[in-house]
Amino acid sequence: xxxxxxxxxxxxxxRAVERLAEWPGSLTVLSQRSGxxxxxxxxxxxxxxxxxxxxxxxxxxxxxxFVAAADxxxxxxxxxxxxxxxxxxxxxxxxxxDADSGTREALTELTDRIVDARSALTDRLTELxxxxxxxxxxxxxxxxxSIDGTLAVVTHDNPDPDAIGxxxxxxxxxxxxGLDAEACYFGAISHQENRxxxxxxxxxxxxxxxxxxxxxxxxxxxVDHSRPGVNDGLPEETEVDVVVDHHPPRAPVxxxxxxxxxxxxxxxxxxxxxxxxxxIEPGATVATALLFGIRVDTRDFTREVSxxxxxxxxxxxxxxxxxxxxxxxxxxxxxxxxxTLARAIRNRDVRGEALxxxxxxxxxxxxxxQAADRLLDMEHVRLTVVYGFKDGTVYVSGRARGTDVDLGxxxxxxxxxxxxxxxxxxMAGAQIPLxxxxxxxxxxxxxxxxxxxxxxxxxxxxxLEDATRTLGVSxxxxxxTFEFPMDEW
Length: 489
Prior knowledge:
This is DHHA1 domain-containing protein. Residues 357-456 form the DHHA1 domain. The protein has helices at residues 14-22, 34-42, 72-85, 101-110, 117-129, 132-146, 161-176, 192-200, 267-278, 283-297, 307-316, 322-328, 335-346, 366-375, 407-415, 434-437, 448-471, and strands at 3-7, 26-31, 46-49, 64-67, 90-95, 113-116, 151-154, 181-186, 206-208, 219-223, 242-245, 257-260, 349-351, 354-361, 383-390, 393-400, 420-423, 427-433. The protein is α/β, with parallel strands linked by helices. A six-stranded parallel beta sheet has the order 3-2-1-4-5-6, with helices on both faces. A six-stranded parallel beta sheet has the order 9-8-7-10-11-12. Strands 13-14-15-16-18-17 form a six-stranded mixed beta sheet, sandwiched between helices. The chain is elongated.
């Protein structure tokens, strides 16, 4: 186990030393600040009120020495004493902004590494002022500070982990500027992993109902979607203050602050970047939700993943509760999901490597997504579309793996004209009002489920056939990028 010695503990270094106390191994702190010594003693740390260069109080052996007083001259004397006493130990020293050039140079030569407050401050100021990301943060802060009242941070309907984590992060950022904020959603959190996330982390979310008066809020922010009234229960005319999303918009987006970054794998990555750049501690709850959001939306860093996604995850890991995350990822499957999966398997229509299935009337929308995920594990299946209807709307969930067909574009082309559709190349969805399907001819209306099946499957398979003809056949007709035999039509 590593043995560590801290000599002096100035106000700037105090937080770093507190983190050292959390690590395995031994820690000894020598400081002349009585409050610091008493505080560390209460935490079970060996701390004494001694001068940093008081060699009589030094332990016999140490592996790492951190010289951390506020005064550079004091640190230089302590560093000289420590280097002579522990010639083989790693020696680090804090250098404040008041250090003269001679003292700074002497500490640099004497120690293995210096923690330079001046350089850190310069780097921090550069990060906060000198690039496009800094300008975005300034604009975000200006908008947040101008809001009078509570900010409603609204996710899309039936929020997934990416939406939940992003909402919690934006609430945390709003609170950092003194603005009250609430994470809100419409619909239900029914997916078992999403319920586990909320319950185990004891996340507080406001469940809004369609038609609720939101005028009591001083402002509205949208996360993980970009337009009011599209995949949320807000009126379409709602004035939006902030939009933060990683999905490509399908129509103009209006808000006082916009940050739409389609090159990122998750909105949680974007929100994490805000926290990191602003120096805001996320806390275990927010960090765990954000980390799970990134992992789910990138399918454990295998789908549409970017370098910032990895960087955000790496920054979040030390803050997150990984034991809870493990429990969230292995919840039990509900009876509703099992029943929907059974119907999806029973009613499946497989054409080549594409599978579409109608599960009829549903109670749990999230069951469609889980069924689409599970069916993708079937042999020779590389694209799944599962759909069912509830409360006057048909809901569609699709998944794809190992194909050049863009599922999001496919559903937009097939179902966008009769509803709303979109998503990623390998994960997409759609919503179609049942009123539109009522226009289908009388000879096809044996039952509502039959109508839904005829319209959805027909449009999806027809669009897939067109996409396959465009993408997949080489000159000799054999090199298909996506197997879709035409004789099955």
